[in-house]
Design goal:
- With 235 residues, this protein is of the alpha+beta class.
- It has a single domain, classed as Alpha-Beta Complex (paralog of FGE (formylglycine-generating enzyme)).
- Helices cover 14% and strands 18% of the residues.
- The protein is built from three helices and ten strands.
- The strands form three sheets. Strands 1-4-10-5 form a four-stranded antiparallel β-sheet. It has a four-stranded mixed β-sheet with strand order 8-7-6-9. A two-stranded antiparallel sheet has the order 2-3.
- The longest helix is centred in the middle third of the chain and has 15 residues.
- The chain starts with a strand and ends in a 5-residue tail after the last strand.
């Protein structure tokens, strides 16, 4: 787990961000207390220890140091509960604001690495260009966690590799969103929950810090995983 310092940031996209979407607006200030976020997405080895088995993962996508995939929301929450019982800590899924704050790591650019993203920095579909970047590799596969450089907070794979569940239900925009970093659990579409980060299958635009999707809670495939969050200090 990595300590994410307290602070404020502007959540969402500015009017000038390339390929911004309306569901990333209005941009608004959020103030957060210190919390902890997983240094990596949860791996298959970690999932196996906590859950005593793996989801149904195609043999091609199996590997102890690869992110666990085929995780629907209910199972992601169950993992957090079981991990909490094993450790005595209160693990949970991050709120969407916590996730974006941690992903940005103090930046205001589309990616924590700057205005563009290359396949030397993250695992995504580099054949689909963004913001005049050069064509890159499309690996068509998961990569081991920690394979690429971390952001300024020391977090790995915040762009690409696997989509990560957040605790929030889906809202079409940020009108009325909390400004304290808490998960947004009222109103909205209760049948959809937020995912963040993009995946190995997605174009760079979908891996932007502000990019968000709402997915049905029982959607699970080889691009969906999770990262855990913790608000209590770790001993």
């Amino acid at each position: 787990m990595v300590e994410i310092p307290a602070g404020s940031f502007l959540m969402g996209s500015s009017d000038f961000e390339t390929e911004k979407r309306q569901n990333e607006t209005p941009q608004h200030e959020v103030n957060l207390k210190t919390f902890y976020l997983g240094k990596f997405p949860v791996t298959q080895a970690q999932w196996f220890v906590v859950m005593k088995g793996l989801p149904e993962i195609n043999e091609v996508f199996r590997g102890d140091d690869l992110p666990v995939v085929n995780v629907w929301l209910e199972k992601a929450i169950e993992f957090c509960v079981k991990l909490s019982i094993l450790t005595g800590e209160n693990f949970r899924l991050p709120g969407e604001a916590e996730w974006e704050y941690a992903c940005r790591a103090g930046t205001t650019t589309p990616f924590s690495f700057g205005a563009s993203l290359t396949t030397d920095l993250a695992n995504f579909n580099g054949e689909q260009l963004f913001n005049q970047t050069l064509k890159g590799e499309f690996r068509k596969h998961l990569t081991p966690v920690g394979h690429f450089p971390p952001n300024a907070f020391g977090l790995y794979d915040m762009h690409g590799n696997v989509w990560e569940w957040c605790a929030d239900i889906w809202h079409e925009n940020y009108s009325g969103a909390p400004n304290d970093g808490s998960a947004w659990l009222v109103n909205g579409d209760q049948s959809y929950c937020v995912q963040r980060g993009g995946s190995w299958l997605d174009r760079a635009s979908n891996c932007r810090s502000a990019f968000r999707v709402g997915d049905i809670a029982h959607n699970n495939d080889h691009i969906v995983g999770l990262r855990v969050c913790l608000t209590k200090n770790i001993s």
